[in-house]
């Protein structure tokens, strides 16, 4: 009779319950969780939190939570060093997807519709354009996980670990307008179903504004990135800054769409 309650207490106090948050994390971001498991990062975090049982004081659990950001950053760096291209692509793909979701929520796309009186009015679309989100996500996966990561690794090999100003100038003045932005139009336009002629026309119309705005935004970001950020986290910093930049690009495009719809509505009324 006494052995049975002890065995039950042992089951309740086991370490399986401590693993529940990490199982939920793996389900929500499975691709990145697989990379972390291959690099041993998930196992290290699991061992860290399983050292303390249910009888540990709450202040020790709080200390573990306070150490979690540093632990995640350390393990992200470890996985990024082991799988640089895959980690960069997945990171930027996820960030760009949510950047476009945020952009559509704050600056919803508009369209020209006809009301009950037969007049043309401007109406904000009440649904998300998931194909547009997928297009931006594909750009992050393909370009940031391939050519961009290769260029950033090459900067250190070709120019050395220092010379941040030269790296930032090459990245902003050469790479961004002549490689990154054309790749953006080609990849996103292809996923959205545009023809090569439509992609070329859009690039010809919007390339200058996109390039100029990107140069102004990216020059200080790249200087800080190349000077102070380690190699394994540079694409992650670029992806975080791109969240802001891609929101601005979406606003720029939506502003032109709104102006075109407003002009068409005014013409139809007259």
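^ Assign residues to that structure.
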């Amino acid at each position: 009779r006494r052995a049975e309650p002890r065995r039950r207490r042992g089951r309740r106090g086991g370490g399986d319950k401590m693993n529940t948050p990490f199982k939920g994390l793996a389900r929500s971001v499975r691709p990145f969780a697989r990379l972390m498991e291959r690099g041993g990062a998930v196992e290290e975090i699991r061992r860290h939190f399983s050292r303390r049982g249910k009888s540990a004081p709450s202040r020790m659990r709080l200390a573990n939570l306070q150490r979690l950001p540093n632990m995640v950053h350390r393990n992200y760096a470890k996985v990024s060093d082991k799988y640089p291209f895959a980690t960069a692509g997945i990171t930027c793909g996820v960030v760009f997807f949510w950047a476009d979701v945020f952009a559509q929520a704050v600056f919803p796309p508009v369209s020209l519709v006809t009301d009950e009186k037969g007049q043309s009015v401007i109406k904000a679309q009440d649904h998300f354009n998931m194909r547009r989100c997928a297009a931006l996500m594909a750009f992050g996966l393909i370009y940031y996980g391939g050519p961009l990561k290769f260029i950033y690794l090459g900067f250190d090999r070709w120019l050395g670990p220092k010379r941040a100003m030269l790296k930032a100038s090459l990245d902003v003045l050469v790479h961004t307008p002549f490689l990154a932005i054309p790749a953006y139009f080609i990849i996103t336009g292809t996923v959205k179903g545009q023809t090569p002629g439509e992609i070329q026309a859009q690039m010809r119309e919007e390339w200058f504004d996109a390039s100029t705005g990107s140069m102004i935004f990216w020059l200080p970001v790249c200087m800080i990135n190349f000077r102070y950020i380690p190699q394994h986290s540079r694409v992650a910093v670029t992806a975080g800054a791109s969240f802001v930049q891609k929101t601005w690009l979406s606003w720029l495009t939506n502003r032109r769409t709104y102006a075109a719809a407003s002009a068409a509505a005014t013409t139809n009324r007259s």
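Residues 7-22, 52-56 have pLDDT under 50 and may be disordered.
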